């Protein structure tokens, strides 16, 4: 009976009414089943290293606005009805399809649903409504200090008034 839900991590701080986030469902393009923000660190630049080496012209793992930096599942809008009805999305849940994608991208993830959504998004971006970074302003800077200082800011920048802070990797959330 439930057609839409918002799923969130616990390490969030809301700066606006969560109802405003629910209104984002109205912005889903035809065929989209999930609303999700882009990852704001070069984690997938790192994770897809072998695919990127074999495909030097790829946008996979590249920073926004033109790249495919992957997704962060700290804030998710799930259109359950659209998910149930999408033949494509349901095919991608099959183990053989997941295996094909992991083999294609030489992917070994460690972030669960986020890795799945990222990998699917590389192949089928039409299944996703990309939320503005202000809906999931990730604060973690781990990758800046672990080999990616030269490109980190290209991923981490976020213009606009923050609506939800995400204290990922145990990062402190700013006080009001």
UniProtKB/TrEMBL annotation:
The keyword Transferase applies. GO terms for biological process: protein O-linked glycosylation via N-acetyl-galactosamine. Gene3D superfamilies: Spore Coat Polysaccharide Biosynthesis Protein SpsA, Chain A. InterPro entries: Glyco_trans_8 (IPR002495), Nucleotide-diphossugar_trans (IPR029044), XXLT1 (IPR042465). Transmembrane segments: none annotated. This is XXLT1 xylosyltransferase. Keywords: Transferase. It comes from the Eukaryota. The keyword Signal does not apply. One of its GO terms (molecular function) is xylosyl alpha-1,3-xylosyltransferase activity. GO terms for cellular component: endoplasmic reticulum membrane. The gene is Xxylt1. Pfam families: Glyco_transf_8. PANTHER family: XYLOSIDE XYLOSYLTRANSFERASE 1.
């Amino acid at each position: 009976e439930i057609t839409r839900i918002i799923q969130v991590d616990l390490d969030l701080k809301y700066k606006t009414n969560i109802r405003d986030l629910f209104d984002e469902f109205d912005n889903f393009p035809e065929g989209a089943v999930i609303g999700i923000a882009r990852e704001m660190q070069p984690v997938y630049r790192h994770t897809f290293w072998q695919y990127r080496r074999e495909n030097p012209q790829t946008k996979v793992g590249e920073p926004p606005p033109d790249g495919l930096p992957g997704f962060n599942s700290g804030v998710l809008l799930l259109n359950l009805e659209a998910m149930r009805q999408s033949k494509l999305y349901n095919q991608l849940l099959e183990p053989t399809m997941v295996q094909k994608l992991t083999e294609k991208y030489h992917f070994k993830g460690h972030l669960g649903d986020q890795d799945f959504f990222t990998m699917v998004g590389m192949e089928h971006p039409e299944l996703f409504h990309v939320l503005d970074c202000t809906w999931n302003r990730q604060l973690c800077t781990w990758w800046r200090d672990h080999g990616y200082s030269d490109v980190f800011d290209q991923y981490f920048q976020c213009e606009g008034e923050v609506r939800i802070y995400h204290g990922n990797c145990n990062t402190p959330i700013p006080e009001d």
